[in-house]
Amino acid sequence: MSTGSNYGKSFTISTWGESHGEAVGVVIDGCPAGLDLSSEDVQIELNKRKPGKSIFSTPRKEDDKAHIISGVFEGKTTGTPISIIVYNNNQKSKDYSEIATYYRPGHADLTYDMKYGFRDYRGGGRSSGRETIGRVAGGAIAKKILSEINIKLTTYARTIGNISIDDNNFNENEIWNNDLCLPDKNRVEKVEKHLLDLIKNGNSCGGIIECKINNIPSGLGEPVFDRLDAELAKSVMSIGSIKGVEIGNGFTAASLTGLENNDFYNYSDDRLIKETNNAGGILGGISDGSQVILRAAVKPTPSIKSTQRTVNKDKNNIDINIKGRHDPIIVPRAVIVVESMVAITLVDMLFRNMNSKMDNIKKLYLD
Ligand SMILES: Cc1cc2nc3c(=O)[nH]c(=O)nc-3n(C[C@H](O)[C@H](O)[C@H](O)COP(=O)(O)O)c2cc1C
Ligand SMILES: C=C(O[C@@H]1CC(C(=O)O)=C[C@@H](OP(=O)(O)O)[C@H]1O)C(=O)O
């Protein structure tokens, strides 16, 4: 029986650990030998997700230090499973004693109990956003593999609440310069004000994360079931709080006509050109070599300070005010998590694609 804690077929990650347990981590399998890899490479990515960096993040302070404990020798991957551990140092499980008895609306408490009849109620336990450390550590390795073949991901907060970035002011260098991962400097102040109002009222909001993949080769993805769009949707929706994924025009396509939605082709000097990219770089489940555009809808943080109605284990109707340390907005912290899952999926699909043509097999074994 699978425990459902892993993702991928040829390049896999298995995450483990609980928010208030001793540590969290990941085992990455399928990484080729000979990739340069240091703890610092992983740390750079983990720092983008780290809690406690601003008032717009959970106040839980952790250094999230990555220790690579297997699969790397003399600075290079050995081709064997890579294990990365991050110790939890700032557990305050007592702050969470109340959630052992009641079910937080919008969180996993109720369904976890329904499934297992038992739950690690120290914070979100296994359902905590802290689990995503393993995904980001795995993503750091996937991104290194992708950068060796010039595939580049750009991921950012597209909207927070109902405030959207202005494409005319898009500046990639801004993304990791502000606490909100907004590529539009002019929107930062407005979003901060909106969030401060919500925090004051014990409320939260969601938003949309956008990821653009450049230099992706054509031919990734299977014609049925393991389609590239299906795999990306699955891996990104496996992140807690992600409630929708769209590729290209996505949900907008439903209200367009065929003439409006189709991307017309032409040849220019023997090069096949698409006039538009409404499909977001994937047709028939297979990448066409143009930019892949993915958007993920993130829900508002469920654990909010406002009074909410719920029930407890003794079947009483109760009003609650959630204590503990929570992200007033998930979007900025989830940007690197989405990017990591996309990177892991791409590497998995690249490796799975290697035996799709006899030519590839011959190149590998005869050249
Ligand atoms: C990076 C990250 C941080 C999160 N932080 C919080 C948080 O502080 N408080 C909270 O209630 N939920 C937080 N969440 C969301 C919950 O983990 C998520 O809502 C929960 O697992 C239930 O899953 P679902 O929303 O997909 O149904 C976070 C999620 C992510 C990815
Ligand atoms: C600690 C982190 O974020 C946590 C994500 C989270 C949740 O429910 O997702 C709830 C809070 O933690 P706890 O598990 O203690 O309730 C956040 O502080 C982290 O991401 O490193």
Automatic annotation (TrEMBL):
Co-factor remark: Reduced FMN (FMNH(2)).
Pathway annotation from the record: Metabolic intermediate biosynthesis; chorismate biosynthesis; chorismate from D-erythrose 4-phosphate and phosphoenolpyruvate: step 7/7
Record keyword Flavoprotein present: yes
Catalytic activities: 5-O-(1-carboxyvinyl)-3-phosphoshikimate = chorismate + phosphate
Keywords: Amino-acid biosynthesis, Aromatic amino acid biosynthesis, FAD, Flavoprotein, FMN, Lyase, Membrane, NADP, Transmembrane, Transmembrane helix
Any Pfam family: Chorismate_synt
Single GO term (MF): chorismate synthase activity
Residues that, per the record, bind NADP(+): 49
GO cellular component: cytosol
Transmembrane segments: 330-351
Enzyme Commission number(s) of this protein: 4.2.3.5
Cofactor(s) listed: FMNH2
GO biological process, one term: amino acid biosynthetic process
Enzyme class: lyase
Binding locations of FMN: 126-128, 284, 299-303, 325
HAMAP family assigned: Chorismate_synth
Oligomer and partners: Homotetramer.
Family designation: Belongs to the chorismate synthase family.
Designated name of the protein: Chorismate synthase
Gene name tied to this protein: aroC
